[in-house]
Amino acid sequence: ELEFPLDIIKIKGYFKAVFEVRPPFKWSVRNTTTDETIWSAIITEGGAESTNSQVQDLSEKQLLQISKMLGSEWMQVAIYLGLMYKDLEDIKETESDVNMQKFKMLVKWKNGRNRGEATANDLWDGVKDLDVLPSEVQRVLQGMVHKFYPL
Questions:
Q1: Beta strand 37-43 with 25-30: parallel, antiparallel or unpaired?
Q2: How crowded is residue 151: how many other Cβ atoms within 10 Å of its Cβ?
Q3: Which pTM value belongs to this model?
Q4: pLDDT one-digit tens code per residue, 33-76
Q5: Residue 37: beta bridge partners?
Q6: d(CA 145, CA 53)
Q7: How far, in Å, CA of 66 to CA of 80, rounded?
Q8: How far apart are CA 143 and CA 117, in angstroms?
């Protein structure tokens, strides 16, 4: 176990770690006070490899599941995900069913990203700072993220 005091992290901004154990292995950074995992990665040989490449993009079925949990804040979610207001107006014009509007918004988000960049983790990263995100959506996305990145 290594300790990274916050005051040193603020000064240095990064750490270099050399491991005596041969990859692959999992490395996690945990808050010692809450025992919450802050960050985790799978360390592999051959240079840096994004763990996102090992995780599949969200399926349309998963997007539909998430869209059904969204309420009236769905347009704010879209803005946090980088969609334009014009895109939302187009969706609303072409689709009268609100649940399908929310679903089409998430599909548009997914289709606007590169392969491997529309994962549960990517979606969570986009919306986690939104203060009106329903707790059910938070719980489901965090569950999906932890399923792909088990601790």
A1: antiparallel
A2: 9
A3: 0.62
A4: 787 777 777 777 765 444 443 468 899 999 999 999 999 999 99
A5: 30
A6: 14
A7: 15
A8: 18
